[in-house]
Amino acid sequence: MTYLSTQEVAGLINVTETTVKRWADEGKIPCHKTLGGHRKFMLKDIVQFAEQNVYPMSGSVRPRLQKRQAQSLELAVQTRDYPKLAQLFYEEALRADRHNMYELLLYLCKHHISLATLADQVIKPAMVRIGDQWHAGALDVNQEHLASNAILEALVHLNPDLHRKPSHGRAAVCACAEGDYHELGLRILAYALETEGWKVHYLGANTPFKTLRSFMKSSRPEVLCLSVSSVEGKKHLVGNIRSIGKAARAIGAAYVVGGSFTGTYTPNDMNCQYVARSVQETVTFLKDRFQLKPGPKKL
């Protein structure tokens, strides 16, 4: 969880330190004081305050990058050049520096790029490129694993800093299919749903179908998101995916299936309401499905 000093907050929203201290003392911004009396602020509280009071967060603390990368980052953020941001993220992923990737993602979030957009336009292209290089023999499997795990750890670190809209009272279950251990995409979707006000029950990798049916029956979520990347036992797997759809329908839950296994399958093939091709489109589908009100406008 990231804490900011009075000086850093003032720089982020372009006001004086005196103003920040006054707002904190008046209770307008949640503030924690150290034993030495120094004010510390949580990043998510500052983001929420800035959005509610229309203060553009044009300032920020850049991640520690090489001079060339830092210059490219600033220009790419200003122009929303996502291919360039994906290139920068790819370079950090190859270094498997989870702390620097966390700082890079945090910097982008501060500039009002949503997690769903980061997932589709920055993280996914970088991971696809790494996967292609591994398949071509240009990268060893250990490099691919190190990059994937570093990204996952960076996202786990980032999650508490993400700004969350108020809860709308609906719950979602997120799980990887039985035998599937590829949970990076599912983890990002779960975090993205949390930022949109969903309560998420995250079951993670290799969730037995029997366990999933039982948990759905007891928790009765409004949505089930199933990630499927394995291609072994294709016919049997499709049967289980369709069976889970029947169980979801029995409790009135919307059923979303995603992952590389889905390929060209349609919702009818999967016995689901939606086949997820991207995080942003999935979030939009669920907003429309449940007629959720939009959150604060982006500045």
The end-to-end distance, rounded to whole angstroms, is 24 Å
Percent helix, as a range, is 40-55%
Name of the CATH superfamily of the largest domain: Cobalamin-binding domain
Structural class: alpha/beta
Please identify, by name, the CATH architecture of the largest domain: 3-Layer(aba) Sandwich
CATH topology tier name of the largest domain: Rossmann fold
Side by side, the strands of the main sheet go 5-4-6-7-8
Question: What letter string, H or E per element, gives the SSE order?
Answer: EHHEEHHHHHHEHEHEHEHEH
Main sheet?
Answer: 5 strands, parallel
What labels describe this entry?
299 residues; alpha/beta; Rossmann fold; five-stranded parallel β-sheet; 8 strands; 11% strand; disordered C terminus
Care to describe what's here?
The chain is an alpha/beta fold and 299 residues long. The chain folds into 3 domains: 3-52, Multidrug-efflux Transporter Regulator, Chain: A, Domain 2 (Orthogonal Bundle); 67-161, Methyltransferase, Methionine Synthase (B12-binding Domains), Chain A, domain 1 (Orthogonal Bundle); 171-289, Cobalamin-binding domain (Rossmann fold, 3-Layer(aba) Sandwich). 54% of the residues lie in helices and 11% in strands. Strands 5-4-6-7-8 form a 5-stranded parallel beta sheet, with helices on both faces. Strands 1-3-2 form a 3-stranded antiparallel beta sheet. The longest helix is centred in the middle third of the chain and has 21 residues, at 115-135. The chain is globular. The relative contact order is 0.10.
